[in-house]
């Protein structure tokens, strides 16, 4: 009886890029050396320099995405590219391409759908002090709102299964896309794990595209929107409590005066208090109704996720003995 061997998984490296002329060539060559069997795609997001030319010269397949923003690029990459395993990294040279085989090995051996390469020492130096502080605050906020699956939600070095990529809605348009990926995994309880890796620095003359305040505000807004969509009872419950508290602040003096005199001389204040109380009740009811809708949406997403075939293939034998030496945490 002939035993048929399972084919090796197809691997795609996807690199979103914007004005990375100085680094993209070395990044592509690094992935070519680490994963010679992989197809390497560089998605150029309206670069004004020679990013596309340098990537093509290094052997990458270059695609232009005219809609500005990393989220738009990721949505296009996930829609265009078909593979069993996807490696996503930045084109700025801060992630080591030679860590990719270990991340792939973790994906296969741990039987998860996403491996996040958490950045060692990122809170010590993330380009600017503001970035480091923001990383710490947003990671703490994420764990308090959505769960403790991740310790570095902003890492751009990730490996995905086809099942994750083709079930991920990718609503975000900018740098908040990694936050959306993390929330998607946490809400559907998709199996994930983390692997701690060294995080490099940009070379001289290369500048970060992040803006501490602008992108921080976008990420905070994304937190609020994702909270409203995935946990509306908690989101609208918090708003209801705020309106209820403010209503009480205005109502208590009026009620106290009524108890003493039997009169309500400050009628506008009482009307305002009752209006705020009504808004509080509306928020509470809206939260309960939308929570039922959100549960239905989550079930539909889960069913779609399960309708896709799980990852197949075998670990990369050359790296199987190396991967366990790196810190690994699992969730899901």
TrEMBL record:
InterPro entries: Glyco_trans_2-like (IPR001173), Glycosyltransferase_2 (IPR050256), Nucleotide-diphossugar_trans (IPR029044). One of its GO terms (molecular function) is transferase activity. Residues 13-166 form the Glycosyltransferase 2-like domain. Keywords: Membrane, Transferase, Transmembrane, Transmembrane helix. The chain crosses the membrane at residues 235-256, 268-290. This is Glycosyltransferase involved in cell wall bisynthesis. The lineage of its organism: Bacteria, Pseudomonadati, Pseudomonadota, Alphaproteobacteria, Hyphomicrobiales.
